[in-house]
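Q: what sequence does this backbone want?
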């Protein structure tokens, strides 16, 4: 009876150890940041966003230059015009300043929205590829390698890049 208990305990320990090693073998990692930074579609998206950002910057600078020019003009002419004209010009300057601020805020929001619209399908494509490669290789868990402190398991980054075609 004592031998049966010992054998049973030994069998449980052996099964437990094999389950632990199986769980470790079914975990891999992938560096999503590396994939995203080198993915041709993402590079194209970044170029589009940089172009849009440059357009917004140019428009903003133009508005700011017009504001500065008008401000200088009104400042030099303020002594020679009536108080009513100065008050009207001050309101005009305040309105211009508000439009410039609104433009900057709207441009930033639109740029963020455009970035989300462009990159979301790319992220989904990478995610699907990671899932496909992970399942094909028999892994239950695939972790993002950029956040790991220790990554002794298999790295699927190269396989995912190959699946994505680069």
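A:
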């Amino acid at each position: 009876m004592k031998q049966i208990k010992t054998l049973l305990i030994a069998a449980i320990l052996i099964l437990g150890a094999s389950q632990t090693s199986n769980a470790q073998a079914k975990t891999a990692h992938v560096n999503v940041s590396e994939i995203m930074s080198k993915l041709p579609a993402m590079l194209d998206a970044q170029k589009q966003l940089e172009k849009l950002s440059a357009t917004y910057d140019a428009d903003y600078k133009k508005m700011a230059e017009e504001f500065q020019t008008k401000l200088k003009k009104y400042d030099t002419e303020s002594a020679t015009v009536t108080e009513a004209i100065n008050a009207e010009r001050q309101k005009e300057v305040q309105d211009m300043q508000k439009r410039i601020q609104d433009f900057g805020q709207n441009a930033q929001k639109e740029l963020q929205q455009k970035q989300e619209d462009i990159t979301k399908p790319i992220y989904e494509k990478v995610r699907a590829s990671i899932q496909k490669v992970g399942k094909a290789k028999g892994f239950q868990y695939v972790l993002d390698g950029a956040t790991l402190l220790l990554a002794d398991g298999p790295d699927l980054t190269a396989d995912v890049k190959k699946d994505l075609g680069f």
